[in-house]
Amino acid sequence: AFKAAVLIQQWYRRHVARLEMRRRCTWRIFQSIEYSCEQDQIKLHNFFSYLMDHFTPSSSKERDFISRMFISGESFKEAELEKYCDYESMEVPDSYTGPRLSFPLLPDHATALLEAFKQKQQLHARYVLNLLQETRKHLKQLPNISHVSTCYSEEVTVCGDLHGQLDDLFFIFYKNGLPSPSKSYVFNGDFVDRGKQSLEILIILFTFLLIYPKEVHLNRGNHEDYMVNLRYGFCAGLIATLRVHGKKILKMIQNVFCWLPLATLIDQKVLIIHGGISDTTDLDMLEKIQRNKFISVLRGKKRKESNTNVEIQEINGENKAEADPAQNEAAPSLLLQPQPAPAPSMANRLEFSKWVRQTVQEQIEWCRRLVDISESEEEELTYSSVVSLTDLDGPCWTRQEEWKQILDILWSDPMPQEGCRVNTVRGGGCYFGPDVTEKILTKYNLQFLIRSHECKQEGYEFCHNRKVLTIFSASNYYEIGSNRGAYVKLGPDLVPHFVQYQSNKTAHTLTMTQRQGFTESAFRALREKLFAHTSTLISAFKAYDKDNTGRITLSNWATAVESVVQLGLPWRMLRPQLVRSTADGMLEYKSWLDDLAVEQRSQEHIQSSLLEVIYRNRSNLETIFRIIDRDHSGLISFEEFHQTWKLFSSHMNIELTDDGINDLVRSIDFNKDGNIDFNEFLEAFRLVKQSQ
């Protein structure tokens, strides 16, 4: 009996160890593919940024298109934005049975919203826009770094990424209680994307923010970004749900996102930021940045703010208006650079500061008129601008330096090694080591750092000698049962107390077969990724097959696969799930790739070479389609296509007349309805591939 018990124990331990290894491998696969998609998004955005920076518009229409390329719709000033999103003109029908809001909001309104969303009801667009306008007004008065004290509440609860998973937010409120004067919350960004109920989460969080402005604090995450929302589903989902007023709501949400605070400090000892830090992180600079300038953090550089020819002529003492009288008549005020007033004496610091402000503002306005770029909104006295104006004697930072500060705190990840290096896995931000953490904590007299941004299997994880805490609140992020969610509570002693959970009840009752199915879904996603790189893999395999035998060693297979897909996975460990075992340790790579193609073709009846291209580029093509579709109608108009083609053709040095572009767009419009939908857009790329 004793020997039998020992045998059962050994078998059980081996079985648990195998399950844990499979779980970790599955985790690595999902995470590597996720980061690879983020890297593709940033590469795509950088490509469009390059095109825009090197494109010279030939007309005011093209100039307007360029200035709006990465901002949905027109650039509204303050009054124009409120007029465009006028909620008072919207009538709520008598048949509407959902919740109704009146301002100022009360706790009963929040309770009614929670109950309505549990019943799958929607909030009418009138109330959504009203809520967004009030939220925007409130956020504009907040500093870049919020300050929270545990003296005024029993504890502060910090939540990580929610990613549109409303069940997780409901569970947090059920276990921990609703926000109240005695219960403060900090929500650390990434409220939207991926999940299906992003808008509901925003409505709930903004409602509690307005009811308890001193107890509820929101940080901006890397997904509170218009360009990221284009790829990961928030924009498309919102427009599909709210077809009538969706564009107005989306425009207002984009404006609200850029006003979200960047960080939160608890008792001046615990810093909460979404991503991380870098060796150049400067909290003093973060405190003074005008954060609303960065609607999308992905785009760091703006278009050149002056025309090269004009600059050369100004340097040579010439004036283009004098050289070209005809153009001078057309736009006399556009090219005449304002001459600064004589500088007052340095002895009078107040007068000198006013002179500096006025001169700089005049020069900025002149540059802006030169390229016909208008500000997204009027200059107002907000918290950030007041801080900037009262610190005129302090250092001046360039827009690039400010952008780098925000990019780092929203996109960075910790690493176990010392130092700070570029985050090549995500494509944005940096990797920071324990020495960088210690340097920042010492410099600002902090105890530890709380961040989110990374999904963790247990919902939280310490690193850097417990000086960096990652908290992630979206359970079942990749698949049901893939991970727990968690939140952390901090009392006056600032000792973290964690609560872990699975909001989906089925995750607790998964059978062994169902858990294995979760693992299989990860390998299925990995096989799709491998199939999308078939052509490149063949070239990599042939480099190891010098004699053209069609066979390579399994070790060379693992090396070649990593060199192509660059996911950083343990391919030798994953090999049994991807490659059939062979007696001599050699792999017939063409046969293996044929098996991958057969598996994918069983789902799509398209020849494998075309399917490979679609699998590899579909996400990028979909994002490009949404960028061109500026009005989020789900269709590309002929005008939108015309202006975008001008952008591409200037980069590719292709001469094409307007009539030629019109013929091209009509050939893509297969159903002849005057617009291009996404299927027609994809079909055009298939036809190009076939002709090649």
From TrEMBL:
Catalyzed reactions per annotation: O-phospho-L-seryl-[protein] + H2O = L-seryl-[protein] + phosphate; O-phospho-L-threonyl-[protein] + H2O = L-threonyl-[protein] + phosphate
Name the record gives this protein: Serine/threonine-protein phosphatase
Cofactor field: Mn(2+)
Protein's organism: Geococcyx californianus (Greater roadrunner)
Alphabetical UniProt keywords: Calcium, Hydrolase, Manganese, Metal-binding, Protein phosphatase, Repeat, Sensory transduction, Vision
Any GO BP annotation: negative regulation of MAPK cascade
Record keyword Manganese present: yes
Annotated stretches, region: Disordered: 309-329
UniProt KW Ligase keyword: no
Function comment: May play a role in phototransduction. May dephosphorylate photoactivated rhodopsin. May function as a calcium sensing regulator of ionic currents, energy production or synaptic transmission.
Family that this chain belongs to: Belongs to the PPP phosphatase family.
Pfam family, one: EF-hand_7
Enzyme class of the recorded protein, top EC level: hydrolase
GO function terms (MF aspect): calcium ion binding; Hsp90 protein binding; iron ion binding; manganese ion binding; protein serine/threonine phosphatase activity
E.C. no: 3.1.3.16
SUPFAM superfamilies cross-referenced by the UniProt entry: EF-hand, Metallo-dependent phosphatases
EF-hand domain ranges (all copies): 532-567, 616-651, 656-691
Superkingdom classification of source: Eukaryota
